[in-house]
What does this fold into?
Amino acid sequence: VIGWSARGGGLRRESRPSPRAGGGEALLRTRLSGICGTDLEILRGYLAFGGILGHEFVAEVVDCPERPELEGRRAVGEINAGCGTCSHCRGGDPRHCPGRSVLGILGRDGCHAESFLLPAVNLIPLPDGLDDESAVFAEPVAAALEVLEQLPGLAGEEVLVLGDGRLGRVLARVLRQAGVAVSLLGREREGDPRPAGAGVELLTDPEATRERFRVAVEATGRPEGFVAALDALRPRGTLVLKSTYEGGAPLPMARVVVDEIRVLGSRCGRMEPAVEALAEGRIAVRDLIDAVHPLEEAPAAFERAARPGTFKVLLRP
Ligand SMILES: [Zn+2]
Ligand SMILES: [Zn+2]
It folds into this structure.
C-alpha cells in the first residue's frame, strides 16, 4: 500500500505490504483523509514522528474480526489507542493513557495511505445520511466539542476564538451551535466569500477585543496568539489553549499570575458526539474544503494546505 510519511524531515512516499487485521486491530481502507495543522507541524519536526501521517479520515472497514458487523461499513475512529489495562483505559478514556499510541502522530501509522489499522473498539460507524466530506471533519469537531466538555455552562457566555484557520473556524461554529455568543478574531480574507459561520462575529482588529471576554480559546498556533488572548481576557478569565507551540515559546506568565488567569490545555475530544452533531446538520463544515487531491498528489496537497488562508485540503486514494 502507498502512504506518506515524514521520515527524514520531508514528505516521503512509502510503499509497504498491506497491514493485517487481528489482535484487536481492524483493517481500514481509506476513502478520504484530511490534512491537519498537526501534520504540517510534524513535517517541521514536531514530536519527531517518522511514520505515515494522518489522523482525520473516513474509511471503509475491510477486516474486523472483533466487530464483524462493521465490515463493509463506513467509519471514523477515535485516534488514541490505549493499552487497555491502565486506570485511564479501564475508565473508558484512553486519551491520557501513558502507553497510548496516536494515529499518525505517536507510535502508529496514520491514514494518509490506501489502508491502515486502528483498534476495532475505536471505530464509530457512520449513518448513511452523513456524507464523507462532512464526516472527515469528525476529529476537529470532536476537538472543538472538548472545550464544551471541559467548560460546561458556556451557553450564553461571550467567548473569543483566536485564529481564523482550520480549527478556529470549526471551534467558532461548534461553540455557536451550543448557544455561545462567539466572536472570531482573524484576518480579513480578501475575495473569500465564506462566512465565519452563522451568528459568529468576525473581528479583525485586536483592539476591539481588549478585556472584553471571560473566556478566550487560543487556536492561532502562534505564541503571539497567547498574548492576544491575555489582552482580550478580563481578570480571572479562562484561556483555553488549543495551540501547541512547537519548540516552546517565551510567554508572559507574570500577566497570568497578576490577572489570575486560568490556563486550560485542551486537546482531543470524543468522536461520537461529533458524528452526531454532523449527522444532525447542527454543524456545517463542507464549505471549509478548499481542495481534494488524489493521494498520489500528496506533496501538492500539503503545499496547498500550508498556504496562508487555506482551511482544509483532503486526500482521496
Ligand atoms: Zn487534526
Ligand atoms: Zn492505558
Q: What stands out?
A: DSSP finds nine helices and 17 strands in the chain.
